[in-house]
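Work Package 3 (structural annotation) set out to generate three-dimensional models for the target panel prioritized at the project kickoff. During this period the team completed the workflow that converts sequence records into discrete structure tokens, so that structures can be stored uniformly alongside our sequence database. As a representative example, we reproduce one entry of 332 residues exactly as it appears in the project archive.
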Amino acid sequence: MTVSRRTLISGLATAALQLTAAAAWSKGRRLQLSAAYGDGIFHTQNLRSFAARVGADTRQSLEIEVMSNSALKPMAQVLPALRRNDIQFGEVLMSSCADIHPLLAMDSLPFMVRGFDEAARLWQLTRPVLQEFLLAQQGVRLLFAVPWPAQGLFCRRPVNSIVDLKGLKLRVQSDATKRLAELWGAQPVVIGAGDLGTVLEQGSLDAMISSSTTGADSQAWKTMKVFLDIKAWIPKNMLCVSELAWKGFAEPERQAISRAAVLAEKEGWALAQQADELGKKVLVDNKMSVAAPSADLRRMLDLMGERFGREWVAKAGSSNMSVLMEYNKKRH
């Protein structure tokens, strides 16, 4: 197929106008960052530190305004808004975007990781693929990702085996927890985050999978007696920047953003682990039993993780299987 001289000139002119507009825009407006959670959450605090570093490193040629609690855009609208450059930076829970790429769901597959070290290794394997995909298909650059505290098991009574969970009323708040309730023979009870505290006070729940920090915030000890640190999964938030905005930044500004992103990821992972330990301490201080799962239970959970992996591959396709195979090879 041949391209006419007029078409070529028109295309080049359009590209030049986009770059010129992006450059002019980046110098003339405060940049906006959509943070998904509240000001008291360590993720948001980490994003504010990231923004401050970028401002200081660029001598305020780039000023990033962090808007918390999804005040700019609901999480589901963040990636499309970034693609259009309606906002310049945006935070999303990775697994909430699993419909656009199956690797975005991997960090929320039950029992794929046993701790933060394995979660970090899984992230290093998935990062390059996701960076390439998001840039090529979504028009956004993935800057960094930070985990939440690990998901553990709260229960009214000790749990030494999967059998001990049969028949219990288990809170379900996602496809993964619904599937676990099914596999464990538990009774699924749908409870939203806003209703959790009330339900716990009423004592109408036997077990739930959540982080130590959520347990501390919701005062889980009012009903639950045990927290098993099973590290069911360690989900992550990712921060992306609009590619249209990126094209408008000068090279020193891009370097400043990249440097700040490296530090934000490193500090964010440390903050997640600190929050996890602090949450468990609060549970202990309120007379809850906090322990690792027994060896038998750990083995059962690992086998369940292999099952979830097989089910994921069946949906994700063979093209994505290599990441899981490489991860498992280094894990065992």
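The chain has two domains: 28-148+235-280, 151-233+287-330.
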